[in-house]
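Q: what sequence does this backbone want?
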């Protein structure tokens, strides 16, 4: 009956069987038989002829409204099917800094891929201003940046606040100490990020503010390498809270130490995309699920 309803609606919209037959690419006799068949199935007359024109009966008007509703529902259904079929093939390009790529992004990507194993995600690295330029130019679908972006034409969604925490080996001689002050970092063996990295600048600013001179044992670019070497070197490190998941700490036999002064290193992790971007279904799902995941995650950290 769907085909019959569509033929009927076309006749109504073009007012004549002649024009409707051309639109539908069928002969006039064939189209007339379709309308007669629909009337037989419904047991009513849909048209009355006035001269060369066809006018709807009352029940014909009801049938036309129903045909429009069916057409709309069919289009919505077909679009949903197309979105479903293309979901796994649609690539989502995410811009992120190298540190975000090591800390925050894996958590969200892992959750998303568990639910959408066929989705295609691609990451592009750069500094925050570079990522914002790529978003503005729509060369990436979205970005994860350690900043709150306020710029016309961009949507910025704060995900969570992050700050540095002191990390020690589980069996370090200072591990059982109840209270800490910044002065106790003076001369403490530490592993730091390499010069020029964002986190190194953050820690250097912190040390200058409190006049701290740590005993720097190593300078490393990799979060993972620092985590593995803390216990080996019996040293401490300052690492972002978002990276310090409990299973990672337990695996490396590490503990975290709360220091109020380190809350001054707070930064806002945000998800950013262009307001006018033509985002595919997968990208929109990633945004929605990342925002929800950040909400759930922040409740437990």
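A:
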């Amino acid at each position: 009956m769907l085909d019959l309803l569509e033929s009927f609606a076309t006749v109504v919209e073009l007012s004549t069987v002649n024009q409707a037959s051309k639109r539908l690419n069928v002969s006039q006799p064939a189209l007339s038989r379709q309308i007669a068949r629909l009337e037989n199935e419904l047991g009513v007359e849909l048209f009355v002829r006035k001269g060369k024109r066809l006018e709807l009966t009352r029940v014909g008007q009801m049938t036309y409204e129903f045909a429009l509703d069916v057409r709309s529902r069919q289009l919505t259904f077909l679009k949903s099917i197309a979105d479903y079929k293309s979901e796994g093939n649609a690539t989502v390009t995410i811009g992120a800094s190298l540190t975000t790529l090591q800390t925050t992004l894996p958590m969200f990507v892992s959750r998303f891929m568990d639910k959408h194993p066929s989705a295609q995600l691609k990451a592009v690295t750069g500094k925050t201003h570079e990522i914002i330029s790529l978003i503005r130019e729509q060369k990436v679908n979205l970005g994860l940046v350690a900043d709150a972006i306020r710029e016309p034409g961009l949507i910025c969604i704060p995900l969570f606040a992050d700050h540095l925490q002191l990390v020690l080996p589980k069996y370090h001689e200072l591990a059982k100490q109840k209270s800490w002050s910044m002065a106790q970092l003076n001369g403490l063996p530490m592993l730091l990020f390499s010069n020029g990295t964002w986190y190194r600048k953050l820690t250097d600013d912190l040390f200058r503010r409190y006049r701290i001179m740590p005993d720097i044992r190593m300078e490393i670019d990799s979060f993972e390498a620092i985590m593995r070497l803390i216990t080996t070197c019996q040293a401490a490190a300052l690492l972002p809270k978002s990276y310090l998941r409990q299973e990672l700490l337990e695996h490396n036999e590490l503990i975290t130490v709360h220091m109020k002064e380190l809350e001054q290193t707070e930064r806002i992790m945000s998800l950013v995309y262009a307001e006018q971007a033509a985002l595919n279904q997968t990208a929109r799902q990633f945004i929605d699920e990342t925002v929800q995941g950040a909400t759930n995650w922040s409740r437990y950290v």
